[in-house]
Specification:
It is a single chain. The protein is α+β, with helices and mostly antiparallel strands. Among the domains are: 265-362; 372-531, 2-Layer Sandwich (Alpha-Beta Plaits). The chain is 69% helix and 6% strand. A five-stranded mixed sheet has the order 2-3-1-4-5, with helices on both faces. The chain is elongated, with a radius of gyration of 35 Å. The protein starts with 7 loop residues before the first helix and ends in a 15-residue tail after the last strand. Mean pLDDT is 85; it is low at 532-536.
Length: 536
């Protein structure tokens, strides 16, 4: 995001938000102030960034309802800008929030939406969202798809400029690939990836992903009896687990460690691991949807362990905790769903109102057909298509004969009635080939897309007949219209104005010749000057 265009106060706010680190919850007030400034400036990029940062704060504290709320708002603003990296991050974090809240459908939609944008606008964050989607695929058991996206994300991070963050991602993905190959029972690729991971660890000595690396190496040693000594890896994994600062972020690795301990039948250590996880979740994390989700998983492991070792008393205690937490989680999910429905409904209503206002701007209030502004846009599109495909483009100017006289004699109400009746007749001919617009006053414009002279003339004659019949019903015996038409394949240098001018001149010719008629021309010189007609 380009900060140069903002004043010093805005830049200072952004700097404060980005550098508060572990105390980011205290940055909420800065986010709110930044959003207010963005609203005053009518700056969608800044508003989206403020909402993104607000949502990111709640992401760190596993408050999924608030995270979803702010990230959804951020996306609405950022979609109007070209801040692709922040927009992709929004979709990535939104997918994680939905996943944490147990809403897999919206999680998938969020990841795929962000990945679609990343396809068109590749940025460094692309690898991150693909890695997160791969993790979702793995958790659902779709290992083949998870493998495809994980390999893809690895390649993207490899192309990034060298940095400790990039090196961490590369070693983490290699460890995840090792885990996937083991789940797929692909011994050949698992052994190859284990060797690759060892090479990466030697190359990137400062990696911070010790827990993720050790647990997958430990599972590999257990499964295939190769690699480093199993006991040495077990000690490294346990040390890394106890030092892990974010058990929720590394829950897949925690699950892998628990799986190993069950395979090794080390139930004493497994119980210690589960108790440590329970204590950490209660001590370090707020009571949120995500925390409850992971706490339930830990409780389920405890229940399974105590059943396995025959400790009925502890099993019963954990079952009670499980059902209480499950009920609390269900209520929380209902509240999150209501909040999301309300937010989506508000955004949808805003979209509908915007569409309605745009439609009003394009429609004539009296007749209910498109107006001149819409005609200009449509004419450009149809003519461009005709020029590209070398097909006919036609334009007709139509007005009511003696309209001023009708107004003066019968009043403006009757005049308006005549215009509404004419518009209703013209609407019957609105299809994929003919388009109708009110040009102004009693003038209407018709556009024809790839229609022959005969087809156009036939329609215009029917319009004349329908107008006369409608006039009789209104008690106006001589209600008629005159129509001037220009129809040809666009020639080099032609503009919409050339057709409009030709149609207008032809209408004027019809008026001078007695009205209540139709004339079609292919070029201006057809209006013969020698016979007292309009010159070219």
């Amino acid at each position: 995001m380009n900060l140069e265009k903002y004043d010093e106060h805005v830049r200072e706010l952004i700097h404060t938000i980005e550098t508060k680190g572990a105390e980011r919850e205290s940055a909420v007030s800065e986010c709110e102030e930044l959003f207010e400034i963005a609203q005053q400036l009518k700056d969608d990029a800044l508003a989206g960034y403020a909402c993104f940062c607000h949502g990111d704060i709640y992401t760190n504290y596993q408050t999924d309802g608030e995270t979803i709320n702010y990230l959804t708002r951020a996306i609405q603003y950022l979609k109007k800008t070209e801040e692709w990296e922040i927009l992709i991050k929004c979709y990535s974090y939104l997918g994680l929030a939905f996943q944490g809240a147990g809403d897999v459908t919206n999680a998938i939609d969020s990841f795929l939406a962000g990945m679609d944008i990343a396809e068109e606008h590749p940025v460094p964050e692309t690898g991150g969202i693909i890695m997160n989607f791969s993790a979702l695929c793995e958790s659902s058991g779709d290992y083949e798809r998870a493998l495809f996206y994980r390999v893809r994300s690895f390649g993207m991070f490899e192309e990034m400029p060298a940095s400790e963050k990039r090196d961490d991602y590369i070693t983490a993905i290699s460890a995840m690939l090792l885990r996937l190959y083991m789940k797929m029972d692909d011994e050949v690729h698992a052994k190859a990836e284990a060797e690759h991971l060892e090479e990466l660890l030697k190359k990137y000595e400062k990696t911070t992903n010790g827990f993720g690396v050790y647990v997958n190496q430990l599972l590999f040693a257990r499964k295939y009896g190769e690699g480093q000594g199993e006991q040495e890896l077990k000690k490294k994994t346990l040390d890394a687990f106890l030092q892990c600062e974010n058990l929720i972020e590394y829950f897949d690795e925690c699950a892998g460690f628990m799986r190993y301990l069950k395979l090794a039948e080390d139930y004493e250590l497994l119980e210690k691991v589960l108790v440590h996880m329970t204590d950490t979740l209660e001590r370090e994390y707020k009571d949120t949807e995500t925390t409850r989700e992971f706490s339930l998983k830990v409780l389920a492991e405890k229940i399974s362990l105590y059943q396995r070792i025959g400790d009925d008393k502890k099993q019963y205690q954990e079952l009670q905790k499980y059902f209480v937490l499950q009920e609390k989680r269900m209520k929380s999910q209902q509240e999150s769903t209501r909040s999301l429905i309300q937010l989506r409904s508000t955004l949808r209503q805003a979209e509908i109102e915007k569409m309605f206002l745009m439609q009003q701007a394009d429609m004539d209030a009296l007749t209910g057909i498109p107006n001149r502004r819409r005609m200009n846009e449509q004419a450009d599109q149809i003519m461009a298509k005709a020029e590209r495909e070398q097909t006919s483009f036609g334009m007709a100017m139509l007005d009511m004969d003696h309209f001023k006289q009708w107004n003066d004699t019968y009043g403006h109400h009757t005049g308006d009635q005549c215009l509404v009746v004419l518009a209703e007749i013209l609407k019957e001919y609105m299809d994929g080939k003919q388009f109708v617009f009110r040009y102004g006053g009693d003038e209407f414009m018709l556009l024809f897309d790839d229609m022959t002279d005969h087809e156009i003339m036939q329609r215009c004659r029917k319009i004349q007949e329908a107008v006369k019949a409608a006039g009789n019903k209104l008690g106006l015996d001589t209600l008629t219209v005159s129509i001037g038409i220009a129809n040809w394949i666009p020639r080099k240098g032609n503009k919409v104005w050339d057709y409009a001018s030709a149609a207008d001149q032809t209408l004027y010719w019809v008026k001078r010749k007695g009205r209540d008629d139709v004339r079609l021309i292919h070029q201006m010189k057809e209006l013969d000057e020698e016979n007292g007609e309009v010159a070219c």
